[in-house]
Write a structure and sequence with these properties.
By secondary structure, the chain is mainly α. The protein has three helices and no strands.
Length: 89
């Protein structure tokens, strides 16, 4: 189980690095992105491990990747400036 947790943490770091490399202009500070990726992967691993048991390591890592990607997507900001119109327009 320790190796599974370490594997999911490394998977979260890889996903966070890919997000900062690809979308750095739309994300907040790098430490927040990396910690969110790792925390999401560990939480996803915990949830899938609780639901499926310890027999399916690949499915647990898949669940970790899905939850990590979902939590990283919550950090994204809009690409351009928001255009706000006045109430009279």
């Amino acid at each position: 189980m320790i190796l599974e947790a370490i594997g999911s943490a490394v998977l979260g770091l890889i996903l966070a690095w890919a997000a900062t490399h690809r979308l750095s202009h739309r994300l907040p500070a790098r430490p927040l992105v990396f910690s969110t990726g790792v925390a999401g992967a560990l939480f996803g691993d915990f949830v899938t491990h609780s639901a499926l048991g310890s027999g399916s390591v690949l499915l647990n890592l898949l669940g970790a990747a899905i939850v990590s990607a979902a939590s990283l997507s919550l950090l994204l900001r809009p690409a351009g400036r928001l255009r706000r119109r006045s109430a009279t327009a």
